[in-house]
Amino acid sequence: MPSMAAPSFLSSFALLLALCSGHVAAQNKSAPAITHDLGCVHLPIVHSTNVNHFSDKRGVQLKLANRSDVAYYAQLSIGTPPQPVYVQLDTGSFELWVNPDCATVSDGDSLFCERAGRYDSAKSSTASKLGTKKTLRYGIGTANISYVVDTVSLAGSAMGLEKVQFGVATGTEDHFSGILGIGYGVDVATPYRNFVDELQTQNVTKVKAYTLALGSKESKEGVIVFGGVDTSKFGGPLAKLPIIPATQSPDQVPRFWVNMKNISITPPNQNTQVYTNSSMPVFLDSGSTMTLLPPNLTRAIAKDFGVDGPDANGFFRIDCGLTNVNGSLNFAFEGLNVRVPYKELIREVPGSPPACFLGITPSSNFALLGDTFLRSAYVVFDLEDNQIWMTQAANCGSTPMALRNMQDLGSLVGACGTTVSAVVTTSTSVTSPLNNANPTVDVSDTSQSGAPSTGGRTQGAPSSFGARSIPGGGSVFWSIASIWTAATMAGKFI
């Protein structure tokens, strides 16, 4: 859709919100160079299916357990002069690293790996090697990295970040792209300032927060706004959800855990039905292709999509014709109900004929909402006040704006003209006989930062109150044990 000007009702926020740098420059070509005082940086989120950026021969027909139909990338430029690289956006991990080993992946993956770009510290006049190494373990695969400090340039902004610490891979397994972990950083999940920390520390953003709009599968592009919001990506107000503290969360890790009230289904031309025992903590993970839910709840939902049980790989194969059906699965939170259309929920794998799978997989360890949910939500991640602000996603243009104060989100209204639907209160219950609506998680500690969870992205991390020091520095990282099966089934695109 064409871009829209900022609506008049935002004028009252003039002292609190400012248009992001790229839009200011476009309005006044004679304006002086943009400074970071404007307070936000917006980067396009490029879908892996976007052939304008990536090859259409990227190997999506490979093993379903290890690949996804869509993954989400942003471009960074690292070093002096800048070297462009694509990295996968991941709210479920905490560190930035680049340079997967393209020689260790298959031919189809190798092509995609090369197109994602490479960083060479020897070609940067501002690079400095720290001499420290680490192994990052994910649900699928690992990355052995050496830490480097260098400049990171930001698209759409004249400003860059100086002396940013990140990892350069010396060897990887089952990874053909780097990762931009945008979870909690210094003194919470990392011993140094991560990317989100540096944005605020270096005054590129005024707040330690960002907003995520992945975009629909059809649009093939979304936007992430660090330090601000894009009011043209939602309509109505935003609902505020407190992030559950790590010490009270199912896995004892500082992730974006929130309480979900229930899940319901709205079949075409039928009444909405609520699944019983669907109230539980969930965390929001853009690095996970699939949504993970307790096994009995997953089976109950799959049955309503016409599937009695999973296939040999643990996936629920469904009729591809359902992608054209006007139904939805609904996720209710306090003051909010996010509707996920069937098309966005269903995972489509090209072939002759194509194969379609329910975008939910069972996990007895914990629940997370991955990309099959997040495509339909507009989410603000507030790492200052430990809040999630969320509403239904929409798209009526592009008006990214900087936030001066997180509290003002309570009065902000999106420009798209749709209102947040109320949480379902009068519905017919559907029995979902869960053994435990809030499954416990067996946690163990490890000297690595890898807590595999959902197929290749989510890391473990120390909580700010739970990390224990070890001789020689560093900390013991809490992680989730014995979830290899769930990790494989989640099928993150890596």
Automatic annotation (TrEMBL):
| Keywords attached to this entry | Aspartyl protease, Disulfide bond, Hydrolase, Protease, Signal
Molecular function terms from GO: aspartic-type endopeptidase activity
Q: Name one Pfam family in it.
A: Asp
Peptidase A1 domain: residues covered: 72-391
Quote the SUPFAM superfamilies the UniProt record gives. Answer: Acid proteases
Q: Name one GO biological process term.
A: proteolysis
Q: Where is the signal peptide?
A: 1-26
Q: Does the keyword Hydrolase apply?
A: yes
| Stretches of the chain forming a coiled coil according to its record | none
- Record Gene3D superfamilies: Acid Proteases
Identify the domain of life. Eukaryota
Compositionally biased intervals (Polar residues): 434-462
Q: Kindly identify the residues recorded as the active site.
A: D90, D285
All disulfide bonds of the chain are C320-C356
Supply the PANTHER family for this chain: ASPARTIC-TYPE ENDOPEPTIDASE, BETA-SITE APP-CLEAVING ENZYME, ISOFORM A-RELATED
Q: Which family does it belong to?
A: Belongs to the peptidase A1 family.
Protein's UniProt name? Aspartic peptidase domain-containing protein
